[in-house]
Design goal:
mainly beta, Urease, subunit B, four-stranded antiparallel β-sheet, 1 helix, 8 strands
Length: about 100
């Protein structure tokens, strides 16, 4: 092994396998781009993003950790969300939940 070398297993890795997902259509009604990170509680994203927030409670973007989705002004796009796992408690963000989902 070479220092810093990464050895990976053959094949694909399915992210969030078997976890509940929902698909929502999201519109950026603001005048600036909005970027949402992979683990941000989607229910609490910027208010300029218009979508069915109740459907997004307890969910985050179903994308690889450390990545993000950017919504340009006036853009509408469909995204897939995945349910939070673990204790299903959310604190911080915009402070709209602060506890159990």
């Amino acid at each position: 092994m070479i220092p810093g070398e990464i050895i990976v297993q053959d094949g694909d890795i399915e992210l969030n396998a078997g976890r509940p997902t929902v698909t929502v259509e999201v519109a950026n009604t603001g005048d600036r781009p909005i970027q949402v990170g992979s683990h941000y509680h989607f229910f609490e994203v910027n208010d300029a993003l218009r979508f069915d927030r109740d459907q997004a409670r307890g969910f985050r973007l179903n994308i690889a950790a450390g990545t993000a989705v950017r919504f340009e002004p006036g853009q509408t796009r469909t995204v897939e969300l995945v349910a939070y796992a673990g204790d299903r408690k959310v604190y911080g963000f915009q402070g709209k939940v602060m506890g159990d989902l």
